[in-house]
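1st attempt posting a full record on here, be nice pls
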Amino acid sequence: MCGINGILHLDYKPVDQNQLVKMRDILEHRGPDDKGIYLNNNVGLGHRRLSIIDTSAAGHQPFTSDSGRYIIVFNGEIYNYQSFYPELKSKGIALKSGSDTEVLLHLYELYGMKMLHRLNGMFAFAIWDTLEKKLTLCRDRMGVKPLYYAIHKNSFYFASEQKALFTAGVPLEISENGLEEYFFNRFVAGENTLYNHVKKLLPGHYMVMEENGKSVTTRWWHLKEQIQNHIPIINPKKWFEETFFDSVKLRMVSDVPVGVLLSGGLDSCSILSALYHQNFKNIEAFNISFSEAEHNEFHLAKKITEEYNYFLNHTQLENENLYQNLFETTYFQDEPIMHLNEPHLLAIAKLAKPKVKVLLSGEGADELMGGYVRYKALKNPSLLKVISQISKFETFNKRPRYDKLFRYSKINNEADLVIFNGSNVYPNDINLFYGNKKKPENAYRHQVLSEAKELYPKDLQRQALYFDQHTYLCSLLDRNDRCTMGSSIECREPFLDQRLVAGLGTLDSKWMFTGKKGKFILKTTMEDKLPKEIIDFRKIGLSAPWGKYLTDYPIFKEELNSFAKSEMFDLPFMQNLDGSKMVKEIQKGNTKIIPYIMPLFMFHVWQKNYQKKFV
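the predicted structure (as tokens):
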């Protein structure tokens, strides 16, 4: 696990070593154990290392091939790297280290990018070919590891985080389209970002950049094709248990201690159970608890760790500590936070740091197996039309969930029902709240939706799963990476093994949506391995009571007053908003305004803490 960065000057001028080093070292939190650079005329590569596999000096990067032709900087893990040892030995290759980076580079030398399909891992890497003078950037199937790039003043820059690009001199300019997506869809999907000059390399893609500036981007892993070409799964429950347990076992490959990010919910408890039933000992689990019962799963985490004789570490995050973690995560995230539990994840990573270097997370289970209650609304769209026409429904129940359902029911076409399913603000809300503002273009989202429709015609629930796997899940993975790496911890997601992702996509919907809470295949697999309280407990996730934080904690009350006068309200499409009025509403206890005010409040915090550092 590491931070990588690089520069390729397309006008052939020499790379400034100081510029390269500054880019590298602003990513020190991603790799405090070692650092290195490769510099040759107009190309430079930088690396910060968090030592996980082969912690010796033999794993130092940038790593050079035996021939001297290829130079690699690598971020991530290849979990099945040892399985290639016999093959490499048969070809006369003697390994000089125990690192997966060396194995990866040898596979590239032998097979080029055709080797990618054989890898089980999470990764983002760059390889410079000194002979053909071309730079290859690549990203893993699901986008677990981030990779950003920019072309500025005839130079190509790339890095694990945007802040390294800004440090190199790429201007921080907010994209109006990106800003719309952030406020209305919660995050910017696809290759675009919040910034005009910065792009993401898409998951499952690689890019080849030639020295003269010509580039070609290739989609090397296409989930729709993987699902369509998958062999039939005869016994889904048996297949799922064997594959899931093997995935968890693979992700224990490490030369340093591995722990579990344990919310207490079904997903993370299933990972802990898979470890227990495969005889892993002395596992450290890490949990954050809340004083509010409706947000708390600590008792479940405590129960299962005691039953398995594992160790539970837990923390709470309140008032000034929460405020401090909020500002820190805003810096690590590079964009305004969107899921609202980023500070809590950072707190767990800080708690874990003295004991482990790696955490296993249950991320991905909901998007693969239908774990969100919002998917239920797509089962019968005609019922939504009935709800939208019941004028008294809005006042029938003042709970936020019912208010959200009523607003969602106003959407009048199936495409938007899928596209806005993971949002908190819907097309009608955009008009009412922001004042005659059109919904975002969402070109990438429509592209993904068209793939989902081809794969699952007339099944809106399955379309939403496929859609989320390419959009919402990407934002969650980015959040996990930034919050854990902010404390120099590696995060691994067993549910995102490519065998599970593709295989689950082939199964009948009954394996997802049977029962009240979804994830039927996971529940039936684990029901004889987990306590009944965990199987039956209502889903909470790592939710946080932000309405309470803003009105009850003194330091947030003060920040809320600052927000009321924020300069953000001068932005083009925010001039109809009245910050003072919004603050008064939230102080009166109007919970319905929370979905609107939170992205605005977090944008204010980001402007104050992050934007001014790089502008």
